[in-house]
Amino acid sequence: MKHWIFFLVLFGNSLMAQKSFILGATLGNEPVQCGKWVVNKQNDSLQVNRCAMYLSNLQFFENGKPLTAPEKPILINFCNGAFEFKQVPQNADSVTFSVGIDSLIQTAGAMGGDLDPVNGMYWTWQSGYIHVKVEAQTSLLASELHSIVCHLGGYSAPFNTNRMKGFKLNDKMLYRLNLDQFLAAESFTTVRKIMSPSLLATKLSDAFIDSISPVR
Amino acid sequence: MRIAAGLFLLSMVMISWIGLQFDEVYSPPHFPKPAYQFEENPLTRDGIQLGRALFYDNLLSANNMVSCASCHSVYNAFAHTDHALSHGIEDRIGKRNAPALINLAWQKRFMWDGAIHHLDMQALAPISHRDEMGSSIAEVTQKLQASKVYPPLFEAAWGSPEVTGERVLKSLSQFMLTLVSAGSKYDRVKLHQAQFTEQEARGYEVFKAHCNSCHTEPLFTSNEFKNNGLPVNQALNDMGRYGITQNIDDSLCFKVPTLRNLKYTYPYMHDGRFETLSEVLRHYTRNLRNTAKQDAQLSQGFPMGGNAKVDLTAFLLTLSDSAFVFNPNLAFPREILLNNH
Question: Quick check: B121 and A116 CB within 8 A?
Fold first, then answer.
């Protein structure tokens, strides 16, 4: 259990203070440190250089009734640490959120803050936000370069990459994006550079959302 | 004399819209409702001026030598005529012809393949493209913030001197939204202020029969993507809209361009393959049946006998708006840029 204590310390959650929802990324079962090589249980070497995503519509419920309005999109850069949302209502028993930016915001024109294109999460040659950016090196790939550049986006059929997720809340409210699991996604065995809306991007978006789970 | 009077009138119009709602003041009465959502980015005098300065400023490129106006020149109705394919920093050649920027408020999709879905987002493409301006919006905002000229202009337009990507993009949109061309002879005829000659009137009939379904008046575009029967350029192998949608029906479909100001916007088509209108008409009347996958409307070809082509050309030239091309409010903003860099 040692690494989860590390996780807690590093991500600054304290179990005593106000209720926080925390989402961090892990690599080799440790909080990810971008730019650092890690050897995982299977003896693969992995390094993540970038890891960012848009978290949209974060919303808390009690018995299925919403306690909060859906939050505006938040840009999470996992290289800077875990994301912490501090205003979880006391009675909340479940949470939902999505990864990505919905079509309404996608097509609304220039926006500021987390949605400002200066953040590097907007495609320039074809309009649309990049929902997820993961750039990594891994010995899992039997290629010379071992590198993965994965920019997932696309908001309209048939290549919509917005994905929703919901959890019953436990006491810890600690969630993780398991990068070992994501980087082992089957699609990466065939393609390592994904930079536009496509069928492959929709598959990888499924793999990405499946890699988010509660820390027990 | 006529031009001078026209110019004066136009500048009065320009001054009077400023601060007012765009569609209240400058939606020509014979135009439909604009597609741009002005409530998200209300035009202001200072916003338009800032956008104009940005549009003409080389600072937006990596080597400080290319501006938007390098490829979109006011004298060409904001197209580019020296080259069939646009060229950017270090003389790198792009793969498409720079389109005229006209009546953009009525357009929903941008670029020949519709890759851009909002006018605000358009500038990101040339700023970032390595063959065009070779920079990035993050770098541009830093350069603008560090300049002497811009923080005060941002303050005037947006209430604080902070330069953000959002503000840069919205200011550029504000200027581009003022590129309204509705002062051609055609427009005066529609507003009962002028009359077509007999030849122009005959040409108008030819136009309505053969061209209006795609180049729909009064904007002279249906804003759709169509295959007008041009054989694919082997060197460029540009599949148009297909590259975006990956839908085979969109193969070789390109945005239907407006026909306003053709007099100034040559060369024509997405790759600038035609220099003159007579080459364009030769394509539509003769070469058409050679290609298989063009739009069904074109399959019969346009047998235009007698003077039909000459008449049609005469009509097309009534879409020229010299007051637009020579409007000083749209030209290089000397007062802002000349003494400052």
Answer: no
Same domain, B71 and B176: yes
Domain ranges for chain A: 2-214
Task: List, in sequence order, every residue forming a beta bridge with B340; answer none if it has no partner.
Answer: none
**Residues on chain B touching A198 (C-beta within 8 angstroms):** 246
Query: Does residue B119 fall inside a structural domain?
Result: yes
Q: Please check whether residues B144 and B194 belong to one and the same domain.
A: no
Domain that includes residue B301, residue range? 185-320
B174 touches chain A (CB under 8 A): no
Domain of B67, CATH number, reads: 1.10.760.10
| Same domain, yes or no: B64 and B152 | yes
pLDDT in tens, A128-159: 999 999 999 887 655 555 788 999 999 988 89
* Residues B160, B269 within the same domain: no
Which segments within chain B are labelled E, that is strand?
225-226, 254-255
Please tell me if residue B124 touches chain A, with a CB cutoff of 8 Å. yes
Give the pLDDT confidence score for residue A14 in this predicted structure.
Answer: 46
The letter for the amino acid at B139 is E
Nearest-Cα residue of chain B relative to residue A156: B245
**pLDDT tens-digit readout, B51-60:** 999 999 998 8
Average pLDDT of chain B is 85
Tell me the whole-structure pTM to 2 decimals: 0.87
The verdict on B201 and B173 lying in the same domain is no
- What is the interface pTM, i.e. ipTM, of the complex? 0.80
Q: For B190-249, what is each residue's pLDDT tens digit?
A: 999 999 999 999 999 999 988 999 999 999 999 999 998 888 888 888 889 988 888 888
Indicate the number of domains in chain B: 2
Q: What is the pLDDT of residue A15?
A: 47
Which residues from A are below 8 Å from B137, CB to CB? 117-118, 124
With contact defined as beta carbons under 8 Å apart, do A73 and A101 qualify? Answer: yes
In this complex, is the C-beta atom of B215 within 8 Å of any C-beta atom belonging to chain A? no
User: Is residue B19 in a domain?
Assistant: no
Across the A/B interface, how many CB contacts are shorter than 8 Å?
Answer: 68
